[in-house]
Amino acid sequence: MNFSIIICKLESNMQMQIKTGNMQMPxxxxxxxxxxxxxxxxxxxxxxxxxxxxxxTRLWMTNNPILLTLSFVIYTIFFFxxxxxxxxxxxxxxxxxxxxxxxxxxxxxxxxxxxxxxPIQIIQDKNKILITWNYADAKFKYLVGAGKIRGxxxxxxxxxxxxxxxxxxxxxxxxxxxxxxxxxxxxxxQASYFKGxxxxxxxxxxxxxxxxxxxxxxxxxxxxxxxxxxxIKGAVIQLIINSGWDYAPRVFLG
Length: 254
Hints:
Blueprint: E1 3-17, H1 29-52, H2 54-63, H3 65-91, H4 104-115, E2 121-124, E3 128-142, E4 145-160, E5 165-180, E6 186-196, E7 198-213, E8 216-227, H5 230-241, E9 246-249
Helix pairs in contact: 1-3, 4-5
């Protein structure tokens, strides 16, 4: 019988979202910088204008509540649409120039050959490929409880033969749960879910603690996982653009 008590846990999580191959696609840093600047400007400029014309702005807001509400709604819609399009533009990769585009069937066969050697599941129909990667599935026991971590990533590819374009969207989820306690029993649950375009995403976690094994007290690693969707997505993008097709992500993919 083995028991454990977790006494240390290390996590590193860096994300900018709009989820294992040998080829990885370099992130388009210039586009990401432009995206950040545009987000900053779209938020800061209205605030600065309000401060510069402070009294005039305050009077206008007081005397025109309906127009103020309408302006806010219009700005919110504009900001949402603008950020959606900017995110799609930032994550897009164009086909390598001078190549004869492969047929859709040939491209799908190439992707299947590439993905066969990766720790993933593939579901394919006529115009779509669903790639699923369960990057974390850890269970661990405490002296007075238990815990579990599950994490998954999905890359959905939709093929447009006419435009020679592959549209894509991503899903990322993580669930952490645990139960136990010494003086008082407690339950813990934490979940996160994302769907859209992931520009930069890295997640690393490890836990260690004391375990009783064969009558001896030992200090061991209980679980560890690392998640970087570029390990999958980078190789997929590289193959697509080297086949004469564009990789064009969509926040909302029908």
